[in-house]
Design goal:
Layout: E1 2-8, E2 13-20, E3 28-35, H1 42-57, E4 66-74, H2 77-93, E5 97-102, E6 111-118, E7 125-132, H3 138-155, H4 160-163, E8 164-171, H5 174-191, E9 202-207, E10 217-224, E11 232-235, E12 254-258, E13 263-270, H6 285-302, E14 310-317, H7 323-333, E15 339-343, E16 353-361
Parallel strand pairs: 4-5, 8-9, 14-15
Antiparallel strand pairs: 1-2, 2-3, 3-6, 4-6, 7-10, 8-10, 11-12, 12-13, 13-16, 14-16
Length: 371
């Protein structure tokens, strides 16, 4: 994997890029795009990012790639989505799935973008985004969203149990409304055969505000249609982490997917926790960040991967006052890995920080077809 950072001085923007490019095989690229605040409004920052993306896509490494998934992390989703939607229509019409969620970037800008591109795949990959409900309460909304998602998968010849590999549950006011989402998810999963004796799904459950003012929960998800169950391996890191069901939630710490020519490693939202389910280093952002890294690294190692293989990172902070120290720590440890730090309180108030990531390695398994 090659990594680079590009800065467009005239636009005051930058792109952090990871390119996985095995010889003669399908290429993948993850990009985190940033815009410097220049005392301008949201529309102006967005226009600068659009121009930056055009330049990115004209680069030699990008010209044979297609946009697959785009997440926009914004500062005011309710007001800004109406500005974004018209200019995103071309992406949507060309098959790129677009997610918009209010999780303000903490660099002072109004928007940051995670973009995933590839040159094709031998598998059918299905992304969904911006699924919302207007039911009363987070529990009812989550039930409706998962029921809708089941129908989407069913229409494509899939189901949650066999095909869904990753979910994101964004919860408005997570400190008070997370529990309802957890209850509904557990009930839905049980009804679909997902239990502590089978498996769950890699996930992030985090504070995030949907653009629809009536929505408490937003669901984004990722599934693969023609995946062999033996290609999927769940990551536990028992020396550092406990099974999530022990404290009442239902997701996998991480998931590894084997292909003939590579592995994908999906790490769920991970915080400073031990293998008894206890929060570690309450009130200490530096120690919590280091323990979070240790937990993620242990999960990656279980998949025979390392931080060198990580293609993108999203970091969630509860307190804006912690941004400067966390930014410095990430700059020192992840000198060339794409990442973004957002304002997004974690599901337990004592957790000051959480991160998720995706890694890609060249350790393939010849029993399966290439990616």
């Amino acid at each position: 994997m090659t990594k680079q950072k590009i800065q467009w001085q005239d636009l005051h923007t930058s792109a952090e890029i990871s390119l996985f490019s095995p010889d003669g095989k399908n290429n993948e690229m993850h990009v985190i795009m940033h815009v410097e605040p220049c005392n301008d409004n949201f529309s102006e920052q967005w226009q600068r990012l659009i121009k930056s993306e055009e330049r990115l896509l004209s680069m030699p490494d990008s010209q044979n790639l297609r946009k697959v998934f785009k997440r926009l992390l914004v500062s005011d989703a309710t007001n800004q989505s109406s500005i974004l939607t018209p200019t995103l229509q071309h992406d949507i019409q060309s098959g790129c799935v677009v997610s918009i969620i209010q999780q303000p970037p903490l660099d002072g800008s109004k928007i940051a973008v995670w973009l995933y591109l590839n040159s094709g795949s031998n598998y059918e990959h299905h992304w969904v985004a911006n699924m919302v409900s207007e039911e009363e309460g987070s529990e009812a909304q989550t039930h409706e969203l998962l029921d809708k998602y089941e129908k989407i998968l069913c229409d494509k010849g899939m189901n949650i149990y066999d095909n869904c590999l990753r979910t994101w549950f964004y919860v408005r006011d997570v400190d008070t409304r997370y529990h309802g989402m957890v209850v509904a998810r557990r009930e839905n999963f049980t009804a679909n055969g997902l239990t502590s004796k089978t498996h769950y799904i890699a996930s992030t459950g985090i504070c995030g505000t949907p653009s629809n003012a009536k929505s408490i929960v937003q669901l984004d998800a990722y599934a693969i249609k023609d995946i062999n169950p033996q290609q999927i391996h769940y990551l536990y890191a028992p020396t550092h982490l406990n099974p999530t069901y022990e404290y009442g939630v239902t997701f996998e710490r991480g998931t590894m997917i084997e292909y003939g020519d590579r592995r994908h490693v999906i790490i769920s939202g991970t915080a400073s926790i031990n293998n008894k389910g206890e929060v570690m280093h309450c009130g200490d952002i530096i120690k919590q960040t280091k323990r979070m890294w240790e937990n993620v690294e242990t999960l990656l190692n279980e998949a025979e991967a390392s931080f060198n293989d990580v293609a993108q990172i999203i970091v969630y902070l509860r307190d804006t006052a912690d941004y400067a120290i966390v930014k410095k720590m990430f700059e020192e440890r992840f000198t060339d890995t794409p990442y973004v730090i957002t304002l997004a309180p974690v599901c337990r108030p004592a957790w000051l920080i959480e991160m998720e990531c995706i890694a890609i390695t060249q350790k393939g398994n010849g029993k399966y077809k290439n990616y």
